[in-house]
Every structure is written in C-alpha cells, then in structure tokens.
Amino acid sequence: MHFILICMKKLRNIISKPWAVVALLVLFSVVASTQSILRSPKQYTYNGENYTQTHYNNYVIFKSSFHHLQNNQDLYCLHLDEHWDLFKYTPTFAAFFGIFAYMPDWLGLNMWNLLNVLLLVLAVYYLPQPMDRYKKGLLLVICAIELLTSIQNAQSNATIAGLTVLAFGLLENKKYLWATLCIVASTYIKLFGIVGFALFLLYPQKLRSALYSLMWAVVLFAIPLVFVSWEQYNFLLSSFISMLGSDHDTSYGYSVLGWLHTWFGWIGNKFTIVGIGALLFMLPFAATKEYDNFTFKAKILSSLLIWIVIFNHKAESPTFIIAMVGVAIWFILSEKNWVNCILFALAFVFTTLSPTDIFPRSFRENIVNPYCLKGVACILVWAKINLDFALEYIRKREIEKTNEIAE
C-alpha cells in the first residue's frame, strides 16, 4: 500500500508539470504522423477502377482542397485520382490549408497534427482557477488516447475542441474580441462549431460580442476571394450547400440518433431529436444567478462539448476528442461520488479505449460499433450533467423559499 501511495504521488507530480504533459502529447503526435507516412498505401476499387489511398487520406483531402480552390475547381465533388471521400469543409478552410499545401507530406502532416495538439494544450493551460496545473495536466492525460485517435486520422476535431475551450478561457478573462474569433473560426472549420456561441450568453458585453462576431465572420468569409472570383465563390457556396444536403441522411453515427436506432429501432425525424436536445441543453441557462460561478460555467462548457458530438448524426470515432474533453472537465470539477465515478469509467472504457487493441476486434465489430457504445457512454454523462443542473436548481429554489418564509 505504501508503494502504491508513493507511485501515485510521483504520478501526480509528473502530471502537475506542464512540460511533461506537453512532451507526451507532442511525442504522440510525431509518432502518429510518422507511422502514417511510413505505412504502405492502401489499394481499393471504385466503379471498376483501381485507386491508391494513403493512411493520411484526410490530410490529403485538406491539402488538395487548396489547390482545387486555386485552380477554380469544384471543392465538393470526388477527386478519386487524388484521394478518397469528399471535402466537407468551407472554402475558408481550404484557403487556410494553403499554409501546408506546398510542404512535403512528411512535414505538412507533422505540422498539421502538432497544430491540433498544441492548440488544445494552449487552451487547457489557459483556463483560470480553480483549474490548477494538476487538474489541467490530468485533463490532458485523460484525453491523450482519444487525441491520438483523432490525429492518427489527421482530423481537425482537436482544433475544434481547442478553439471552444480557448474561447471559454478568453471569456473568463474578458477578452471578448479573441473569444469571438475562436468560435467564428471553429464554425468556418465545421458548422457545428456555431453551438459555441451559446457560451456568450453567460457573460456581459453581449452586443459587443455580437459585433465582434459579425466582423470576424465577414473577414473569414472574404479570405477565399484572394484566390477566386466572386462568381466562382458563389458557385462553391452553392456546391457546398448541395453537398451538405445530400450528405445529411446517409448515417446516424455514434450519436443519440444512432443509439435510438440501434437499440430501439427508432427511425424518425432527426430534427425533432436535435430540437429536444437543444432545449435540454439550454435549460440550465435559466439559472442566471449562477453566471458568476466558474464551476457552473465550466460544466456548461462540458455539456456543450459533449452535445455537439452526441447530437451530430455524422459523429465518427475521431470526433470524440471533443466530447471527451467535455467529459474530463466535468469529472475533474464534479463530486467524486460512485455514480460519477462509474459514468466516467464507462466513458473512458467505451469511448476512449474501445477503438484500441485493448478490445478484441471481434468484440468491437459485433458489440461496440453496432450498438454505438462509444457514443452511449457520453450520452449518459451528458444526461447526468443536466440532471445535476436540475437538482441543484431545485435545491437552491427550496432554500430561497425557506429563507423567504423565515423572514
């Protein structure tokens, strides 16, 4: 027992050192990038034609989108001679990837994955008290494996999580100009980033924040015009909207929709479920007296980060770095009762570890994936967060009524 206590103390000391946590995550990023570069390309057949796909296909999609933008090509159709799958981001994101487009792949992929990792690290360490260095390090360690899953797929999800958390930290420090840039930028990467604007309801200066948001939206919207004419930009926007419309009904993902479908055979209107989820998400905002309470606001942030994944019908495994950041913030700031500990354990096991080799492949393919267990654990945590909000609100209302009667 004494040995275990010593080990736990040493582990706590290591986690409390930012350089150690950052070194671990940077190592993860470099190893994942190098592994993707060195692996042999995959061969596949589509419509009778043979094609080659790298193990960093998403990065190739992003990089190619800039060249397509420059060459006045349609960003939102298949380019099977270059990569598999569609580009599903805004023209602004394609323009942004000009930073990486002319780098050799070994360098560009490393820089892109490091950007994702370091932005999340910066966001977490920028959080104010009561998030001390140990809690911040613990948050990043909890999310490390999920972060690795995301960067192995060269995805942008860690950037979305980082921008959202950074916006929260900036709002806490009254830096509204830069907080609005973070949320607008996340929206221009993936449209579900727009949910982050809900954070501004918790803070004063709402009109100023709205004006800043409008300014940044115009600036980021205009960036692709450096590379294309207005007519071509108009065409790209129309093609983007058309692609999103045709893509909407193709799957349920590891989401609430997927859970309802696989567990209960539910097939219905997706907008109804998302609407109910949005209403439940917004209910805690009614507790306006809590807007000066950091823990309350941080749990709203947790709820938001989980919400944008579990109510996203396209939620895939690499998307869950966003949700797990929310789960980690919630767990670190919550009471460590047996319910919360079990829910966190379920999320860590089924959300974070389920895609790894810890689970036998047959179990993943026959149980975890078909029954959306990666998403279900986060759904349970999100439900607990909202239940706690409701119970706390009722408790405080009862105290207020008791005090009124006593007076």
Write the layout of secondary structure elements.
Blueprint (H helix, E strand, L loop, with lengths): L1 H14 L2 H21 L3 E5 L2 E5 L3 H14 L20 H6 L1 H4 L3 H22 L6 H20 L4 H16 L3 H14 L16 H17 L7 H18 L8 H9 L5 H13 L11 H17 L9 H14 L4 H16 L7 H8 L4 H34 L1
Antiparallel strand pairs: 1-2
How does this structure look, described?
- This protein is globular.
- The chain has helices spanning 2-15, 18-38, 57-70, 91-96, 98-101, 105-126, 133-152, 157-172, 176-189, 206-222, 230-247, 256-264, 270-282, 294-310, 320-333, 338-353, 361-368, 373-406; strands at 42-46, 49-53.
- A two-stranded antiparallel sheet has the order 1-2.
- A hairpin with a 2-residue loop joins strand 1 and strand 2.
- With 407 residues, the chain is mostly helical.
What descriptors fit this protein?
single chain; 407 residues; mainly alpha; two-stranded antiparallel sheet; 18 helices; 2 strands; globular
Strand content: under 5%
Q: Element order, helices and strands? A: HHEEHHHHHHHHHHHHHHHH
Name the shape in a single word: globular
Number of DSSP strand runs? 2
- Count of helical stretches: 18
Helix share bin: 55-70%
Stretches where pLDDT is under 50 for at least 5 consecutive residues are none
Which sequence of strands runs across the widest sheet? Answer: 1-2
Please report the distance between the alpha carbons of the first and last residues.
53 Å
Overall structural class, as computed from helix and strand content, comes to mainly alpha
In angstroms, what is the radius of gyration?
22 Å
Main beta-sheet strand count, sense and barrel state: 2 strands, antiparallel
Kindly report the average pLDDT value. 91
